[in-house]
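INTERNAL AUDIT FORM
Audit reference: QA-55
Scope: verify that the stored structure record matches its stored sequence.
Auditor: D.O.
Record contents follow.
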Amino acid sequence: MTFRVDRRQFLMGSTALLAAGALSPVLAQDSSLRLLFWGSQARADRTYGVTDLYTKAGGPAVEGEFLAWNDYWPKLATQTAGGNAPDIIQMDYRYIVEYANRGAIAPMDEFVGGALQLADFDADQLEGGKVGGKLYGISLGANSVALMINTADFEKAGIPVPGPTTTYADLAAMAEAFKAAGIEKKVIADGSGSEPMFENWLRQRGKALYTADGKLAWEVADATEWFTMWADFRAKGICVSAEDQALDTGPLETTMLTLGKASIIPSNSNQLVAFQAINQDKLTISNFPRIAADAPGGHYRKPSMFFSIGGTAANKEAAAKLINFFVTSKEASLVLGVERGIPCSAGVREALAPTLDEQSQTALNFVANLGDLLGALPPSPPAKAGEIDASLFRTLSQEVGFGARTPEDAGNALFTGANDILSRAS
């Protein structure tokens, strides 16, 4: 499904900002720019609020379109294959290598110091947008994987919400407390098909998803143990059933949290704002469970997403200027908040922090204070890593959930299938 919104409905205070003379002049262009991104209605409101600011300050008109995550990638693939790619493309860390290697997005190095003013940008976030030493993506914010938690359910159960030392084993005791309190929800969504959760679990074991040269960095036994753990959770009623989990089709509105099926789901820190906007109960975030109380954390600060320039964009410099406005304008940051992650510009962070509401402060503090949970940013996933996630990993997770495969069979199939996909990509 494609969502379209009348931008006049959500200028997000841009008129007041402009009246105060807050914006620097922006060179106008004759032609409009096309922007494609994934996300919720809340993200669209903020995004179009910024593009309206940009246009009113003299920049070109921006025609935006947004889709749910699951719908976004097929449409983007179709547009890029047909030579009709948008000028500015919202890009994910797992796909950036693939899109860069086939020229679907353009390197931006020539604009650094000119259209792109990145002098106070976090070095690790710039590095995360590079492929083969060239800059293909500008990070829109730093974030981390996180558990999205309904605090009201834990208050009703009379137990603390998950925290820094919570383990996977602790989930069983939480499920018992839920039952005793008459809470019909399950403690957690079925995370067996969550690649970020699997990666975090691997990192706690001293492993990774991929090696630096694009090979698998785990074994069949790891995948088998992973699917077995979730099959046990499913059997004991700790996580939701396969039938319920199948209702999650991608949009935030269909997640187990929003549908009231589970009190915890795997998510990302930057999504707290958007989830709170569509959930009445107070939400918070915490780290993914540890495999043991003293286990190292598997987290890292990841570029939440990038803006990239389409490989066929007619005016790449104009596209770079719009991207620069998103990531370096303090006025834009007041509209964007931390919904896409913690700003990567030190100056923008300093200006934004005092203005944030409680939920946004929670997200900022979580990413800034990961402590011993924090590890190094892994290499960009290899080409076709997105196919492994979307077409193989999630499918095998569902097949185990519905009883069509055993965990052992799924572990073997994941390892063999992932290797086959990577071999085709090379």
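Auditor finding: record pair retrieved intact. The mean pLDDT is 91.
Action required: none
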